[in-house]
Design goal:
Number of strands: 15
Number of domains: 4
Shape: flat
Oligomer: single chain
Number of helices: 22
């Protein structure tokens, strides 16, 4: 059956606000300025140039023959993000709430101005090209023209927030069972009726059960029971692999099936280890968590993460660059929960460097783990961050004198040694043993001397400490708390749990919610200007 492509048509909504919409806007302005602002500036956000860009994108995903007004769908994604609802609820609300039809130029229509299927197809189209980035940039441009941002020195704050994955984490047995079940399903699609014969010949007794642990019928709290259950699952997996061994060309010719088999191998390698007392080929559960452990079969990018030493979460981290003066979000980057913050910080800084004007950046302590941060404080830019803490009961690094011109470090007792960035500076035992300040410098027995770790970015750290000793530096540091309020404001509609599976979809969701937050900021400043005039 031939596939019918959906053609884009230009959306030209009226700019003037008719009396019935003025009544809705007057009632809405005090409580929901976002809708009024979006109605008054929709022709700027989705102008002819942007709609032409949408029209030239690939249209192989959406189906049907009805024409699509791409500008309308672009605004519908903003409305959907503001309400934090799916495609079905977004379409339903346009028929029950007059604010959505007012924005989408569908007030008084018998049918909703958008449909669930086309809205979902348009979302996938934005993700594929990636036009969500283009729409995001137009949001920032609109905020600049309405007073939210502006041509000035950009002071950006980099921060992150945890985002729980759409799929829950699984333990080792469930991971293996889920991976094996997925591989069986993909083999059934590739082999057809012969897949049932493979399953029957292999004797897979655990296939088809909704709960793997219920099928095993073992007491999960006992170590011997867990080891026995793991052995049964690994035996079942081995029988499945042997049953699929004859058609070796199938695994190479069918990428989905090959990916399923590789996933099983990955689960075994990351969660188990050879068991010396289990005989040849025996394996046992690892006592330690793998550094980059995959915790879900469906959400393969989801990882273990920490917000503190005691609090953990599973999913992703959403990294944002917030305009410190106008509390608008300038960039969003999505990363796995276990990724260091400095990696996302580098991506954010690369995007912010494209902004006109002099750039000032402030960062959280998590981003300080990268010595490269010192190179960001280059001529034409300014970087403010909290220096690494130097607490402790004995002499700390601020008690030493670091001479970067002569490249030597002097201890509180007056002893000086050469200094090399990135390597420890050892003090000789002959000078430390007879020093009256030795108990304050080290608790080691006499013989070895004190050693002082010198970071690669030590000059930058010293500069930050000197800045924090001034009133102006402390005041500048306190201003960065605005990023926490901005991100909390964005998380009100977005929520702490991801709506979609997959990194790219989460990136899209983060961008559209940040775009809504920017539009709300722009609406706020425009309302202030209106009242002031």
């Amino acid at each position: 059956m031939p596939h019918h492509h959906t053609e884009d048509v230009m959306w030209n909504p009226p700019i003037a606000v008719p009396p019935e919409e003025q009544t809705i806007a007057a009632r809405t302005r005090k409580t929901r300025q976002f809708f009024v602002f979006l109605r008054e500036h929709r022709h700027e956000l989705v102008d002819a140039d942007f709609q032409d860009t949408l029209a030239h994108s690939d249209r192989s995903k959406p189906g049907g023959q009805a024409p699509v007004e791409a500008g309308l769908w672009a605004l519908a994604t903003r409305w959907q993000a503001y309400g934090h609802v799916g495609e079905r609820d977004a379409v339903a609300l346009t028929g029950m709430d007059t604010r959505g039809p007012m924005v989408l130029a569908g007030l008084g229509a018998e049918q909703p101005p958008c449909s669930q299927g086309t809205l979902g197809n348009f979302r996938m189209r934005l993700i594929a090209h990636p036009l969500d980035k283009t729409l995001w940039e137009r949001t920032v441009a609109l905020a600049e023209t309405t007073g939210g941002f502006g041509a000035r020195q950009l002071r950006a704050v980099l921060d992150s927030t945890p985002l729980v994955g759409a799929r829950r984490g699984e333990d080792t047995l469930h991971l293996l069972g889920h991976a094996r079940r997925t591989a069986v399903d993909r083999a059934a699609q590739a082999l057809g009726p012969s897949a049932e014969a493979v399953v029957e010949d292999a004797g897979l007794g655990l296939v088809g059960h909704r709960s793997l642990k219920a099928a095993l019928a073992r007491a999960g709290g006992e170590p011997r029971a867990r080891a026995c259950a793991l052995g049964l699952v690994l035996e079942d997996v081995a029988r499945w692999q042997r049953g699929l061994a004859p058609p070796q060309t199938l695994a190479a010719a069918q990428p989905p099936l090959k990916e399923g088999m590789e996933t099983i191998t990955q689960m075994i390698a990351q969660d188990t280890e050879p068991d010396p007392g289990g005989g040849p080929g025996g394996r046992r559960l690892q006592h330690h968590v793998a550094p980059d452990r995959r915790i879900s079969i469906e959400a393969k990018d989801s990882r273990h993460g920490r917000t503190s030493r005691a609090q953990t979460f599973n999913g992703f981290q959403e990294h944002c660059a917030v305009d410190l003066d106008r509390t608008g979000i300038r960039e969003v980057v999505m990363g796995p929960a276990n990724a260091p913050e400095y990696e996302a910080g580098e991506l954010l800084a690369a995007e912010l460097a494209k902004a006109p004007g002099r750039l000032q950046r402030t960062r959280d302590l998590g981003s300080m783990a990268r010595p490269r941060i010192a190179h960001w404080a280059e001529p034409g830019g300014y970087s403010m961050a909290r220096p690494w803490p130097q607490g402790g009961p004995r002499c700390t690094k601020p008690d030493f004198t670091l001479d970067f011109a002569g490249m030597q470090v002097t201890c509180p007792g007056g002893q000086s040694v050469p200094m090399v960035l990135g390597t420890p500076a050892p003090f000789p035992a002959a000078g430390c043993d007879g020093c009256a300040l030795r108990p304050q410098g080290t608790n080691a027995t006499r013989g070895p001397g004190r050693s002082l770790r010198i970071r690669t970015d030590a000059p930058f750290q010293q500069k930050l400490r000197a800045t924090m000793q001034t009133r102006r530096g402390r005041a500048a540091r306190r201003k960065r708390t605005a990023v926490e309020h901005t991100m909390a404001h964005q998380l009100v509609p977005q929520g702490r749990r991801a709506r979609y599976k997959g990194w790219r979809k989460k990136q899209f969701d983060g961008r559209r919610h940040a775009a809504v937050s920017n539009l709300q900021v722009a609406a706020h400043y425009e309302e202030e200007h209106r009242l002031a005039s």
